[in-house]
Amino acid sequence: MGLLSSGSWHLMFGDGDPEGGSSPLLMKVAHWSAAGPEGVLAQLTALEVLLEVRSMVKATLTIGTDGRPVAKTDPRQPSAREIHPCPAFPGVQWILDELQRLVSDPLLVSVKFAERLERLVRIGRKYGIGLLVGTQSLLLADYGNRSPLRGYLANRNLFAFRNSNKSERAVVAGLEISPSVLPTGGGYAFSAGAGRLAMLRVAWAPDMARHAEGLDSATLDSDSELAMAPHRPVPVDEDDALTEQLARLAAWRQAAGHPAPGGTPATPSTPGSPVSSVFADPAQITVPAALTGDNIIPMPVRGSLPVLGAVPADLDALSGTQRAVLDAVRGGQRHRRDRRGGRGHHVGGVEGPQRAGRPRTGHQGRPRPVGRRSRRCRAAAMSARRGPES
């Protein structure tokens, strides 16, 4: 909704679901929506042509006083380094959902879809092209086994929602994220980008669709429109699309031997009268309960810290090594080389977990006194102190 209302972005939506069921709202409000491998491939091809055209256009532009690209009036003016989205040259935001289905589709694998998508992500920003993808996990297979592609996408902003796969990890700007530790209840996510990590929660709002449908659209510049127009599909009327879907369903039922259901299929409801823009009256939006203060669990006010001795020790939760360390500290030992019970024993776990509770051993497992050197070691040390013989 923010992109549509800005007047500086052209919105494209590609759905890995051939039926377009991932987001019916985006399928309806996007300037160009496509479902299935063939439609998404047409979008990718159009964006690749747009890159070539805008690379030529960029050489004829310079940056104006307001920071926006304008046409050169003097050949000596410096060329624009980037095409920043603005009403004169709108940016193109491509949203891809169910990416894991697209990168594994046989048709898209044969045309190297993942490799071409990686190139678009790598250089598209310079020409005002952005990409937002949605997958089921952060595993490399969901990105066509292309580690650079996943890295490019996660380099800016990443939203990782809860996932029950405990072995799943994502490293973003040096931050390791484990989606399995997020709480249950829905909507919780990690937000990572530019070295920052935060938690957030989102919720589905059932009344946003009517506001999104009434937002204005951005018109592409003439060169960009000419580049993408040959790859756009012919617009399909909604009534014709419904008729085609019903025909496909009837053909499947007949082939499967199912009788056709009686009665007339339900027709789409007639849309109501247009409403004012949500940005003109934000009070019209119903805030989901999950995002209000009613859904927040109050934390008890903590007073002063209790006395350490008054807190009961949960010894059952400690490992054997940790118990040995605790006993040593309670016994007044503060250094890892403090001996316990005479010569030859170190504090268990303080010297090292591998030696906890047992004496050091020398060659062939024989006990070795701590603090004494073998004859060979003492001879070597004495030779080193005397220096080379003259």
Structure description:
The chain is of the alpha/beta class and 390 residues long. Helices cover 30% and strands 13% of the residues. The protein has helices at 2-6, 24-29, 37-58, 99-103, 106-110, 113-123, 147-156, 209-212, 222-228, 238-256, 320-330, 375-386; strands spanning 9-15, 32-35, 61-63, 69-71, 91-97, 129-133, 158-161, 170-172, 175-177, 188-193, 196-201. A 4-stranded parallel beta sheet has the order 2-1-5-6. It has a 3-stranded antiparallel beta sheet with strand order 7-10-11. A two-stranded antiparallel ribbon has the order 3-4. A hairpin with a 2-residue loop joins β10 and β11 (196-201). α3 (37-58) packs antiparallel against α9 (222-228) and α6 (113-123) runs parallel beside α7 (147-156). The longest helix is centred in the N-terminal third of the chain and has 22 residues, at 37-58. The model is unreliable at 263-276 and 340-357 (pLDDT under 50).
